[in-house]
Amino acid sequence: MDADYGTYAQAAAFIGAAIAMGVGSLGPALGQGMIGKTACESVGKYPENYTKIRMTMIIAMSMVETAAIYALIVSLLLIFYNLK
């Protein structure tokens, strides 16, 4: 029985991409949840400052989301990088 190592390498790349996306998006998801919770609490306490709170929340969420975007780029590179 002859093993096709190209197929094994491709399968390993797919598994690595799945793990990279799963682990790489776990932290940003938790971070965005905490940011949203804190923003809702702040708007509840200080409703007159909702525009400043909203702007700060959007900036913070965009900074946190970059980690998930980097994980997506790494997983796409793992999937579409040609080993042959």
Quick summary of this structure?
With 84 residues, the protein is mostly helical.
Task: Describe this entry's structure for a reader.
By secondary structure, this protein is an all-alpha fold. The protein has helices spanning 5-45, 50-80. The longest helix has 41 residues, at 5-45. It is rod-shaped. The two termini are 22 Å apart. The model has no long low-confidence stretch (mean pLDDT 89).
Radius of gyration: 20 Å
Unreliable stretches, pLDDT < 50, 5 or more residues?
A: none
| SS-based class | mainly alpha
**Anisotropy-based shape:** rod-shaped
N-to-C span: 22 Å
Q: What is the strand tally?
A: 0
Q: Report the order of strands and helices.
A: HH
CATH superfamily caption: F1F0 ATP synthase subunit C
Whole-number total of structural domains: 1
User: What integer is the average pLDDT?
Assistant: 89
% residues in beta strands = under 5%
Helices and strands in order:
Layout: H1 5-45, H2 50-80
Give me some keywords for this one.
84 residues; mainly alpha; F1FO ATP Synthase; 2 helices; 0% strand; rod-shaped
